[in-house]
Amino acid sequence: MSKAKIHMLFPTPVFECHINDYKEINLDLTKYIHELRERDNKGLKLSNERGWHSNYFEIAKVDVLKKFVSKIYPFLFEITTQRYGWDVTPEKIRIAAMWSIINNKGSHNTRHFHPNCHLSAAYYVKAREKCGNIKFFDPTDQKIMQSPTKKKPTVLSAEHASFTPAEGDLLIFPSYLHHSVGENLSEEERIVISFNVQIL
Which of 100, 133, 129, 127 is nearest to 189 (CA)? Predict the structure, then answer.
């Protein structure tokens, strides 16, 4: 009997990128984010539980943010034009919002998604061991309603998947993809920059 042919239809991608020379810019980003928290210790309350969520960045006014965008932009251009095949020119790729979250020990982020945009991302400025994995959930709700018992999850049967953060890593994913962040079990803070992308 011949093996069944598999056609992977309508997959949901998570693009894992890495900034090679991340150490210097991460130090500058950490300083900037800490200064923001000093000025606004309350921040916003969204998916963050016991963690600090900044207000939205004013990218055009901050040199370190403009430098950061210049480092991540090539990934965005390659993903939108080559991987998705969208009809995109550089000026059509717009970062609609950018912010930071600091999770100290015991903090986490509840399950959520990012509406009214096309792509979302998480960049790891500071991430120590056991600081909290990001978990993505299967967007096919019908599959979760009834599922046979699994011996082991595969790419066809898994209902969620997680990534262990590492400093300099950048995850880019469709904004409709639900995700959460596990509890920070380390003794050090976890700093992430998130942003949303719209294609004009």
Answer: 127
Q: What is the 3-state secondary structure (H, E, C) of 164-194?
A: CCCCCEEEEEECCCCEEECCCCCCCCEEEEE
In angstroms, the CA 98 to CA 86 distance is 22
d(CA 181, CA 73): 25
Under a CB-based contact definition with an 8 Å cutoff, are residues 109 and 181 in contact? yes
Contact 99, 195 (CB under 8 A): yes
Q: What is the b/e burial string over 11-34, where b = at least 16 CB atoms within 10 angstroms of the residue's CB? A: eeeebebebeebeebbeebbebbe
pLDDT digits (tens, 9 = 90+) for 28-76: 999 999 999 999 999 999 999 999 999 999 999 999 999 999 999 999 9
State the burial class of residue 172 (Cβ atoms within 10 Å of its Cβ: 0-12, 13-18, 19+).
buried
Written as six digits, the tokens of 4 are 């069944």
φ, ψ for residue 30 (rounded to 5)?
A: -60, -45
pLDDT tens, residue by residue, 94-147: 999 999 999 999 999 999 999 999 999 999 999 999 999 999 999 987 776 777
